[in-house]
C-alpha cells in the first residue's frame, strides 16, 4: 500500500502550488491623519436612515462592544448604558468608531477590515452595517425610539470582575505605592509562591490591577487610571527555603495596561510547575498625575483538568527587535521590516504588535514559495497594547520554511497624539519615548503529523477548491503519491 502524504519538502510544494497569490499588504503612508474615516450609507444595507433609533439599533451595539468598559466601574471614563448617558457623547461615538482601525478608534480593536484573517476570539469590532447605523443615528439627531425596544440591561460583576470568569488560582503581588507626581520606577517586586503541589497546565491567564484610584476620577489617558504600566514575569521552581527560584521556567505573556487576557486555546497550554513561584522581575510603575496611589496586580489562572496533557505548548514569537532602530523626527510613514524563516511547521495563535509611542500600524505577511500574502494589518495605539487571538480554525498554519515578514509603521509628527517629541531623532530603548519593533504573539510548533492533521481539518471546512484559506498555503496543495520512489523514479 503506497503511503500517501502531503508535500514532504518545500521545493516540491513551490513547483506545484496551484495558485499564485501576491496580495501585498495595503499601502498606506502609515500616518495617523491621512486616512479618511469609514463612512457608510444606511440605505446600502436596506435600512431607512430615519428608522434608526437608540433603543432598537444602537443599544445592542453598545452592549456587545462597549459596555464591558463603558459602564460604572468598567474602566472607561464614561458609561454608555442608558440613552441619557450616551446621547451627549453621540458625535464622539460616531467619530471614534468611524476611524475603526487607527489610533484612537473605539472599540480599541484595530484590525483592518478587508485584508487578511478576520476571525478572532477576542474580536469586538463593529461591522460596516453597524457603523452605518451609528452614522445615520447621529445625522438624524440621535432619536431615542420606542422604550419597549430597549434590550434588557446586561449584568456586570460588582467588583472589577474577571473577563474570563472566576479563575482556579489567583496570585497577588505586593502593594506598590506611587507618589502624586514622581519619576517612573522599574524593577523587581519579588516572588509569589503558587502553592501548587503538582504540575498544572494553564488554559488561560488574566492579569488585573486593583488600585485605590476612584473609578470616576477624571483621567484623560488610560495611564491616569492605573499604577502599573507593565509587568514582565516568569515562573520557576522554588528553592529549599522558599526565598528564590532554582531555575527559570516559562516566561508568561507580558501584562501591559490595556492588554487583554491570554487564552492559549484548546490543545495548547503553558505549564505551571509543582512547588513553583512567579517571579515578578520587571515591573514598570508610574504616578497617575492625580494623587498618591496604591495598587497591586492579581494573576488569575484557569487550568486544564488534572492529568491533562496538551497537544502543543505555546511559546512567544519574537519577530523584529528593539536594538538598532533609527527613527527620524517629524516624519510620517517610516517603516521597519523584519524577516524570520520558520524552522518548523507553525500554527500562529496570536498576533501582538509591539511598538512604542511613535507606532501607528503593523502588518504581518507570510511568504511561501511564489506566494506572498498578508495575514493581517492592524493599527497601533500605544495606549492599547492589544493581542489579537485567532479563532482556532482561522489561525495561520504555516509550513516550515515560510518567511514571516513583519512591517512596523511609525509617525513622529504632531498628528500622533501619543508622541512627546517631534523634534529629535530617536533610537531604540525601553522607554515609551524610545522605540521597539516586535511581534510578541504566541505560536506553537507542529510535527509533520500534527501539521497534516490540522490541515485535514481545515480542508473539511472548505467548501470547494475555489475557497482559499488565508494563512494555510498548503491547504489545497495537491497530494503527492510516494509510489514514485518505489520504482526508482523521482518525485514529480
Ligand atoms: C476595552 C475597553 C473599552 C471598550 C471595549 C470601549 N471603550 Fe471607549 N473608551 C475606553 C477608555 C479607557 C476611554 C478613555 C481613553 C480614550 O479616550 O481613549 C474611552 C473613550 C471613549 C470615547 C471618548 C470620549 C471623550 O470624552 O471624548 C468614546 C466616544 C468612546 N470611548 C466610545 C466607545 C464606543 C462607542 C465603544 C464600543 C463601540 C467603546 N468606546 C468601547 C475604553 C473602552
Could you please describe the fold and organization of this structure?
This protein has 492 residues and is an alpha+beta fold. Among the domains are: 108 residues, no CATH class; 145 residues, Jelly Rolls. The protein has 7 helices and 27 strands. Strands 2, 3, 6, 9, 10, 12 and 13 form a 7-stranded mixed sheet that branches. Strands 4, 5, 7, 8 and 11 form a 5-stranded antiparallel sheet that branches. A 4-stranded antiparallel sheet has the order 14-26-17-23. A hairpin with a 2-residue loop joins strand 20 and strand 21. The structure holds heme C. The site of heme C has 19 residues, from helix 4.
Bound molecules: heme C
Report the span from N to C terminus.
19 Å
The largest sheet is: 7 strands, mixed
What is the helix fraction of residues, given as a range? Answer: 10-25%
Mean pLDDT over all positions: 86
Number of helices: 7
Gyration radius over CA: 24 Å
Overall CATH class of the domain at 169-313: Mainly Beta
User: What proportion of the residues form beta strands (DSSP E)?
Assistant: 25-35%
**CATH topology (fold) name of the domain at 169-313:** Jelly Rolls
Number of strands: 27
Amino acid at each position: 500500500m503506497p503511503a500517501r502524504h502531503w508535500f514532504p519538502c518545500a521545493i516540491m510544494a513551490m513547483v506545484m502550488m496551484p495558485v499564485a497569490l501576491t496580495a501585498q499588504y495595503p499601502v498606506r503612508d502609515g500616518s495617523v491623519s491621512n486616512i479618511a474615516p469609514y463612512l457608510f450609507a444606511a440605505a446600502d444595507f436596506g435600512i431607512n436612515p430615519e428608522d434608526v433609533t437608540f433603543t432598537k439599533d444602537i443599544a445592542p451595539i453598545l452592549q456587545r462592544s462597549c459596555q464591558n468598559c463603558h459602564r460604572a466601574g468598567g474602566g472607561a471614563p464614561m458609561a454608555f448604558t442608558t440613552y441619557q448617558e450616551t446621547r451627549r457623547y453621540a458625535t464622539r461615538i460616531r467619530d471614534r468608531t468611524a476611524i475603526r482601525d487607527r489610533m484612537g478608534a473605539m472599540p480599541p480593536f484595530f484590525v483592518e477590515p478587508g485584508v487578511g484573517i478576520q476571525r478572532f476570539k477576542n474580536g469586538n469590532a463593529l461591522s460596516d452595517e453597524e457603523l452605518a447605523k451609528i452614522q445615520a443615528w447621529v445625522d438624524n439627531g440621535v432619536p431615542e425610539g420606542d422604550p419597549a425596544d430597549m434590550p434588557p440591561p446586561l449584568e456586570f460583576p460588582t467588583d472589577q470582575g474577571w473577563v474570563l470568569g472566576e479563575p482556579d488560582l489567583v496570585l497577588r503581588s505586593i502593594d506598590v505605592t506611587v507618589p502624586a507626581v514622581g519619576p517612573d520606577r522599574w524593577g523587581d517586586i519579588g516572588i509569589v509562591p503558587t502553592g501548587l503541589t503538582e504540575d498544572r497546565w494553564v488554559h488561560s491567564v488574566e492579569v488585573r490591577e486593583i488600585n485605590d484610584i476612584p473609578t470616576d476620577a477624571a483621567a484623560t489617558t488610560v495611564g491616569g487610571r492605573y499604577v502599573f504600566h507593565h509587568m514582565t514575569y516568569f515562573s520557576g521552581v522554588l528553592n529549599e527555603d522558599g526565598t528564590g527560584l532554582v531555575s527559570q521556567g516559562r516566561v508568561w505573556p507580558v501584562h501591559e495596561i490595556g492588554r487583554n487576557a491570554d487564552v492559549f486555546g484548546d490543545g495548547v497550554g503553558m505549564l505551571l510547575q509543582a512547588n513553583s513561584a512567579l517571579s515578578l522581575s520587571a515591573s514598570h510603575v508610574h504616578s497617575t498625575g492625580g494623587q498618591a496611589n496604591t495598587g497591586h496586580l492579581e494573576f488569575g489562572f484557569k487550568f486544564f483538568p488534572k492529568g491533562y496533557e496538551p497537544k502543543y505548548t505555546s511559546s512567544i514569537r519574537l519577530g523584529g527587535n528593539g536594538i538598532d532602530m533609527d527613527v527620524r523626527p517629524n516624519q510620517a510613514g517610516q517603516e521597519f521590516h523584519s524577516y524570520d524563516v520558520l524552522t518548523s511547521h507553525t500554527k500562529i495563535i496570536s498576533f501582538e504588535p509591539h511598538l512604542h509611542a511613535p507606532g501607528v500600524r503593523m502588518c504581518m505577511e507570510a511568504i511561501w514559495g511564489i506566494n506572498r500574502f498578508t495575514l493581517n494589518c492592524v493599527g497601533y495605539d500605544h495606549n492599547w497594547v492589544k493581542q489579537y487571538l485567532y479563532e482556532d480554525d482561522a489561525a495561520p498554519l504555516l509550513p516550515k520554511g515560510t518567511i514571516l515578514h513583519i512591517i512596523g509603521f511609525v509617525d513622529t509628527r504632531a498628528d500622533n497624539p501619543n508622541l512627546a517629541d517631534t523634534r529629535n531623532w530617536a533610537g531604540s530603548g525601553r522607554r515609551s519615548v524610545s522605540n521597539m519593533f516586535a511581534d510578541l504573539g504566541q505560536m506553537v510548533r507542529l510535527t509533520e503529523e500534527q501539521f497534516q492533521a490540522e490541515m485535514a481539518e481545515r480542508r473539511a471546512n472548505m467548501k470547494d477548491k475555489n475557497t482559499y484559506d488565508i494563512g494555510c498555503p498548503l491547504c489545497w496543495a495537491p497530494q503527492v503519491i510516494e509510489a514514485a520512489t518505489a520504482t526508482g523514479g523521482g518525485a514529480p
